[in-house]
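WARN no homologs supplied; continuing
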Amino acid sequence: MWQIKRSRPLILCWLTAVGLGGIHAWSARHDMNPDGINYLDLSDAFLKGDWEAAVNGIWSPLYPLLLGIARFIARPSPYWEFAVAHALNFIIYLFALAAFHFFLSQWLYDRQPRVGQSLMTLTHDPTLPGCSWDMPYSSGPP
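OK structure emitted
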């Protein structure tokens, strides 16, 4: 019973984040900013095999590559190209959300007291500013 009560807020947070992300992706499915247009052009270069245009010093090559793969799989008409880009963005958002959940849960798990570990060692984490044991205390400026 305790696990169910503890997981309800987590499930609610996930449903809220996924729902709001989905609503945002769907509501803006036909909108695109100028950077998005450039990424679509770069994905065209990847699909055509024009590596000189696809890889440059200004734009990251990974996102246009993923966008090119998504467009190759979906084969959208020009009307739906923006929607495919937003669907890919939503998938990337879900991966980022899962990564955030994983790292936050690991960080919180590492901060739980273990058998034989005092609460004092948890509250004085040297990775946090102002919580190091070797930090000198002074009564004023030097």
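Residues 124 and 130 are 9 Å apart (CA to CA).
OK
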